[in-house]
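In the design runs reported in the main text, the only information available to the sequence generator was the tokenized backbone. The following block is the verbatim input for one such run; it is reproduced so that readers can re-run the procedure and compare outputs position by position.
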């Protein structure tokens, strides 16, 4: 009887001590630079958003936010590096479409599952854009379909990696349009666009943020957006769905930290990210890129990505989509 109150008191003291430790962590964080891992090569849309966001977050956090490009394996190299980092808030990954698709696309994830991460912030969502070179003979989505039907397995499309939105956008297009295309994966949108501009590949279902500047300067021609409704960022460009009924693909960007990161640290990163999304410099850089900014609490990202996982899993299975 005497020991029971003692155990209760000991439990209360442990809870209080844990609370003090958590508070101390929140007050001390951050006291050194933060690594922002981009699982793609430099030069693509994810890289652009990460560098712009990281610069703004560093001003609020009082520490440098250093972008670390870790491309390869359909984003799994960079993502795994963060999953296996200390859960202290100093390693953050910029996740995108592949994060929600890899669990159903890959037979084995090096980090087990997406339960290895804690959500921080849904940055935003936006369409992909089917683009070709300015001198391409294809002037419309219908032209691409006609050429693909005339010569199956000859038209090539680039992507920033297996399992990315550009890859699955092409797979869904081929499936619904009943054509056969050849997928050419790269380690990021930067090298993919270099080969597209150089004539090594025919087209790309690129993220809007990766190609908006090339479309604006006339180096690439936009044939269609992957959203259900036209995009204000690409005026006059029709939806692919207007030619291929039922077609829809959406890109997104979010921040994750390793599971087990203290909640006060997650909340601090979330607050800095939300403030960065409202910064004039960030708004200026993404205003022409079709990105609808989100910026809600951490749970917003968790809920959204769970829904994306559930949406894409049957599509991957039904179409027999395999990693390259």
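Verbatim output:
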């Amino acid at each position: 009887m005497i020991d029971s109150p003692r155990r209760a008191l000991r439990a209360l003291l442990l809870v209080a001590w844990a609370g003090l430790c958590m508070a101390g962590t929140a007050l001390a964080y951050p006291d050194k630079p933060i690594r922002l891992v981009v699982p793609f090569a430099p030069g693509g849309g994810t890289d652009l958003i990460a560098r712009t966001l990281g610069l703004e977050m560093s001003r609020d956090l009082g520490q440098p936010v250093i972008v670390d490009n870790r491309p390869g394996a359909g984003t799994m190299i960079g993502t795994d590096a963060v999953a296996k980092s200390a859960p202290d808030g100093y390693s953050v990954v910029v996740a995108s479409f592949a994060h929600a698709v890899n669990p159903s696309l890959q037979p084995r994830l090096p980090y087990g599952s997406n339960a290895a991460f804690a959500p921080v912030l849904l940055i935003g969502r936006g369409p992909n854009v089917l683009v070709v070179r300015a001198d391409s003979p294809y002037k419309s989505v219908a032209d691409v379909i006609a050429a693909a039907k005339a010569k199956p397995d000859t038209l090539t499309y680039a992507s920033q990696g297996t399992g990315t939105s550009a890859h699955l956008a092409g797979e869904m297009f081929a499936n619904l349009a009943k054509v056969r295309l050849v997928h050419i994966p790269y380690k990021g949108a930067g090298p993919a666009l270099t080969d597209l501009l150089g004539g090594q590949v025919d087209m790309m279902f690129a993220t809007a943020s990766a190609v908006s500047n090339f479309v604006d300067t006339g180096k690439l021609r936009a044939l269609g957006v992957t959203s259900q409704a036209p995009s204000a960022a690409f005026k006059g460009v029709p939806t692919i769905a207007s030619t291929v009924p039922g077609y829809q693909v959406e890109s997104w960007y979010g921040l994750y930290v390793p599971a087990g990161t203290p909640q006060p640290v997650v909340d601090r990163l979330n607050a800095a990210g939300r403030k960065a999304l409202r910064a004039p410099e960030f708004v200026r850089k993404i205003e022409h890129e079709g990105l609808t900014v989100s910026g809600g609490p951490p749970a917003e990202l968790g809920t959204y990505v769970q829904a994306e996982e559930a949406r894409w899993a049957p599509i991957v299975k039904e179409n027999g989509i395999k990693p390259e």
